[in-house]
Amino acid sequence: MKVLVIGKGGREHALCWKLRQSPEVDAVFCAPGNAGTALEAKNVAIDSLDYRGLAQFAKREGIGLTVVGPEQPLVEGIVDVFQREGLRIFGPRKDAAELEGSKVFAKDLMRHAGIPTAEYRVFRSAPDAESFILSREVSLLVRSRGRSTIRHNMLCRTARETIEAIERVLDPREMLAPGVQVEIEEKGRKHVFGNVAEARDYVLGRPVGMVIKADGLASGKGVFVCDDLRQALEAIDRIMVRREFGRAGERILIEEKLDGVEASILALTDGRTIIPLESSQDHKRAFDHDEGPNTGGMGAFSPAPLVTGALMEQVEREILVPAVHALKRARRPFRGVLYAGLMLTQQGPKVLEFNVRLGDPECQAVLMRLKSDLFTVLNAIVDERLDRITLEWDPRPAVTVVIASEGYPGRYERGRVINNLEEVDATSDVKIFHSGTIVRRDSRGVEDDRVVTDGGRVLSVTALGKDFSQARDRAYKAAAKIRFQGAWYRHDIGGSQTESHS
To answer: What CATH code would you report for 397-502?
Structure first.
């Protein structure tokens, strides 16, 4: 059978690599693909959002199964387009993919299904969201110093009340003489300010634990973990005022911040049977020690040692099964990969988000460990006979290190030549999955066999080892040999696992 993989990232390279290993697959195509998928499949110059063009290609080429990698085509309904044309395709329909397309929809579904998740509020305007932030309790005592008509101590319960009190004290119309200051007392400690801006900045620096999310798709970057009021207001401004994420920011969620350890559970389902894949954990923050902005993912490892057999059963019972059943009751049957991003709290696992496809870079680490025929598995899901499938896994852990372009997750340059790829890819138990690469072309459009950067996340270096320590060591030694101008990566992927489980 011929197989078409849609997408051009590291996840799609891993899918092509794994599907090519099946004895039932005659040929693999990837649209549009990258320099790495070209090593496993035949790249097709059709954009992943050109659904009609992709369906026409699948018909013309006699594609027996299409596998969708990225979330946007799923959310926009590529599965519906293919099914109307009588084509076999792996992934959820548009109505079921809304589970990732709208965080508000997902949270409402979780609430109705009794799935554990963080408390949340939904806002449709920036002023309403800002008002909610400023209503947070701070309990500060504000008083005047110097000759002012404002002489009473003012106990302010919220940030808004505190800022209003500061503005009253330092209002020029209320001052009887120069040099009036405002004093803010917090837990016995006094802080004195001579102008509104400095005093207001102090108030907005009050600690608060909340997460602010754009409702729609934002390539993994529309989530802001806010440690103080200032960060929360900045997140609202970026999402709803400056519209950095476009229409994804028409609504936002403000959630309580959960404490614990994150884990990713990816499960296969045909709408009736659910089979969890091996657990994994990714690293979203750009820099070491989980600092810096959120990214699409800077590395991953599998398995996540904290996800024990008992915990996996709990996740399946309390999260996966209720989610699949809730979608079925809503007449949105889900077939494909259900990804639950979890926070393992002291109260048990809680859902941070649902995705409707394989994660990237979790996919690279997980598929590196899968010994079963992936084509057979995906075929069974499309045919609704997943109950006949048993998965076999390599017991060795895998670690994936993402090598990124200088400037990512902000602006970055493309077209930088990558060296030593073939040498590293020939290393035992190491695989380089291309995420953002193309083959360089000259002025006439002729390929010259040099691989160059074409994205923010460029390569996913994945390694197996007898334990986490060896897998991590192999991945980092391989990453260190790859060279291109501005290349960088985190140095602590899977570090805690090496220390605790090697």
So the answer is: 3.90.600.10
